[in-house]
Design goal:
The protein has 446 residues and is of the alpha/beta class. It is built from 14 helices and 20 strands. The strands form 5 sheets. It has a 10-stranded mixed sheet with strand order 9-7-5-2-10-1-11-15-19-20, with helices on both faces. Strands 14, 16, 17 and 18 form a 4-stranded mixed sheet that branches. Helix 3 packs across helix 4 and helix 5 (156-173) packs across helix 6 (182-196). The chain binds guanosine-5'-diphosphate, 6-O-phosphoryl inosine monophosphate (IMO) and magnesium ion.
C-alpha cells in the first residue's frame, strides 16, 4: 500500500502527465492538489493524444476516480469545456470526477485582472498563463474568495458584492472594462451550480477514507518546484505550493500518510515565462533542444526557453520534496548532441555557492559552472531495458543521480506511454505498491 506524489522538479512541463498516466494502474485514485488550468499535461499512447488542464491524468484510465482538491483554483467554464472534450474522445467522466467543495472559484474578473496587469507591466511582465491564477489565490488569501461549495448554498450575492467592490477599482485603474455586475455574476454562478453540484464532495474525508480502506492514492502535481510560491524563483513563480508540502494543505491528506515522491525531471531544463534561468542557452544547442524536444507550451503555445541540466536547482528541489526516485524524461531529445553540459555550481562574486539563492538579483548574476560529458549520438527512443541504453547515456544518468542525490526510477525516451523504462528497484516497487508488473503491462510495447 502506498500513497505517492508525482511532481515536477524544475519549472514545469517535465512530463508529469505522461508519467502519471503510465503509473496509474498501481493506484485506486488520482488527485490534483494545487494550481488550475495554467497546467498543461500531455498524455500520448498508441495513436491517442490528450492535453489535460484541470483533469488529473488518471481520467484516461478505466474507472479510476479523479479528485480536484481544495488547493486548486477552478474556472467552471473551462472545466466543463475540458470534460466535454475528453467525453467526445470516448472518456467517461460521470461519477468519476470529484471536486472539492473547498476549492476556489475563478471568476471572469480574476482572468481580466491577470490579463490587465500583465499588459500594464510591459517589459517586466511575469509571463503568466493569463488564466486568472494569481488573482484567485490572492482573493483566497484575502479571505474574500468564492469557494466551489458556495455556488450551491445561499448567500452568494453577499460574497459577490465584496468581490465586485475589490475588483472594480483595480480593473478601472488598469483601463479594463471587463467588470460584471453582481446580478450578472450571480446568474453565471447559478448556471455553473447546476453542473458543479453533483461533482462536489468533502474530498479530504473522501481521500482519507480511501486510505483508511487500504487504497493507494496518487497525487499529481502541476507546475514545478521552482515555480512554488514559497520556494521558487519569487516573484517569477505561480501562486500555489507546487512542492510536496502542497499535498497536505491542498487535499487534507496529512504528511504522515504519504509514502513516496516521484520527482519528474527533464534530462535538460526548460522554462516558460520570465524569470532567472542560470543554465539557459541562447545558441544552436538551445535551438536544437527546443526543436527536437518540441518545446512549445501545452497551454499557451509559447516557445519554452531551453538550457542544460541544472544540478544546483535539481538538488534544491530534491531536498524540498524529499524525492524518493526521479523519473528522467526526454532523454531522447539529447540523442544527437556531441557534447552535453551539466551545471554543477553557481559562481557568484568569485565564489561557488553551496545552496540555491533566494534573491533573483543574485540568480540573475551568477555564472554557471559546467562539467562537459560526451554525448551518445545514437537513438534511445523506445529502449525498454536500461542495460541497452548507450554507455554514455547510462553514464550521464549516473552522473545526474550522484549530483542530485536521488536514484533514477524511470527513464522516458519518447512522448508515448510505450517509450518508458521503469526500473525494478526497491524505491519504485515501494511507490507502486509492488504493482510494477501492472504498470509494465499498461505500458505495453511500442
Ligand atoms: P507536464 O506539464 O509536466 O505534464 O509536461 P507537458 O505535457 O507540458 O510537456 C512535456 C512534453 O514533452 C509533452 O509534449 C510530452 O508529450 C513530451 N514528452 C514527455 N516525455 C517525453 C520524452 O521522454 N521524450 C520526448 N521526446 N517527449 C516527451
Ligand atoms: P505544468 O503543470 C510551465 C508559469 C507561467 C509563468 C508563471 C506564473 O504544465 O507544468 P501563472 O499563470 O501560474 O500565474 O503563471 O508560471 N507556469 C508554468 N510553466 N508549466 C506549467 O504547468 C505552468 N503553470 C504556470 O509560464 O511563468
Ligand atoms: Mg505542461
Amino acid at each position: 500500500m502506498a500513497n505517492t506524489i508525482v511532481l515536477g522538479m524544475q519549472w514545469g512541463d517535465e512530463g508529469k502527465g505522461k508519467i502519471v498516466d503510465l503509473v496509474c494502474p498501481a493506484f485506486d485514485a488520482v488527485a490534483r492538489f494545487q494550481g488550475g488550468h495554467n497546467a498543461g499535461h500531455t498524455v500520448k499512447f498508441a495513436d491517442r493524444h490528450f492535453a489535460l488542464h484541470f483533469l488529473p491524468s488518471g481520467i484516461l484510465h478505466g474507472e479510476t476516480p479523479c479528485v480536484l482538491g481544495n488547493g486548486m483554483v477552478i474556472y467552471p467554464e473551462a472545466l466543463f469545456e475540458e470534460v466535454a472534450g475528453v467525453e467526445a474522445a470516448g472518456v467517461r467522466t460521470e461519477g468519476r470526477l470529484i471536486l472539492s467543495d473547498r476549492a476556489q472559484v475563478i471568476l471572469p474578473m480574476h482572468l481580466a485582472l491577470d490579463r490587465a496587469r500583465e499588459d500594464a507591466r510591459g517589459e517586466s511582465k511575469i509571463g503568466t498563463t493569463v488564466r486568472g491564477i494569481g488573482p484567485t489565490y490572492e482573493t483566497k488569501a484575502g479571505r474574500m474568495g468564492l469557494r466551489t461549495g458556495d455556488l450551491v448554498v445561499d448567500g452568494l450575492e453577499r460574497r459577490l458584492e465584496v468581490l465586485v467592490r475589490h475588483f472594480e477599482p483595480q480593473l478601472k485603474a488598469l483601463g479594463s472594462d471587463e467588470m460584471l455586475s453582481v446580478s450578472e455574476l450571480s446568474a453565471l454562478c447559478r448556471e455553473w451550480a447546476d453542473r458543479i453540484g453533483p461533482m462536489l464532495r468533502d474530498t479530504a474525508t473522501y481521500l482519507n477514507g480511501l486510505i483508511d480502506d487500504g487504497k493507494n492514492v496518487l497525487f499529481e502535481g502541476a507546475q514545478g518546484a521552482l515555480l512554488d510560491i514559497d520556494h521558487g524563483t519569487y516573484p517569477f513563480v505561480t501562486s500555489s505550493n507546487a512542492t510536496a508540502g502542497g499535498v497536505a494543505t491542498g487535499t487534507g491528506v496529512p504528511p504522515t500518510r504519504i509514502d513516496g515522491v516521484l520527482g519528474v525531471i527533464k534530462a535538460y531544463t526548460t522554462r516558460v515565462g520570465a524569470g532567472p534561468f542560470v543554465s539557459e542557452l541562447h545558441d544552436a544547442d538551445g535551438e536544437h533542444l527546443r526543436e527536437r524536444g518540441n518545446e512549445f507550451g501545452t497551454s499557451t503555445g509559447r516557445p519554452r526557453r531551453c538550457g542544460w541540466f541544472d544540478a544546483v536547482a535539481a538538488r534544491y528541489s530534491r531536498m524540498l520534496n524529499g524525492v524518493t526516485a526521479m523519473a528522467v524524461t526526454k532523454l531522447d531529445v539529447m540523442d544527437e548532441l556531441a557534447d552535453i553540459k551539466v551545471c554543477t555550481g553557481y559562481r557568484y562574486q568569485g565564489e561557488v555557492l553551496e545552496s540555491f539563492p533566494a534573491a533573483i538579483e543574485i540568480l540573475e548574476q551568477v555564472e554557471p559552472v559546467y562539467e562537459t560529458l560526451p554525448g551518445w549520438q545514437s537513438t534511445t527512443v523506445g529502449i525498454l531495458d536500461p542495460s541497452e541504453l548507450p554507455k554514455a547515456a547510462r553514464d550521464y544518468l549516473s552522473y545526474l543521480e550522484k549530483l542530485v542525490g536521488a536514484p533514477v526510477g524511470m527513464i522516458s525516451t519518447g512522448p508515448r506511454r510505450e517509450e518508458t523504462i521503469v526500473m525494478d528497484s526497491p524505491e519504485m516497487q515501494g511507490m507502486l505498491s509492488q504493482k510494477l508488473g501492472a504498470v509494465l503491462d499498461h505500458r505495453g510495447t511500442p
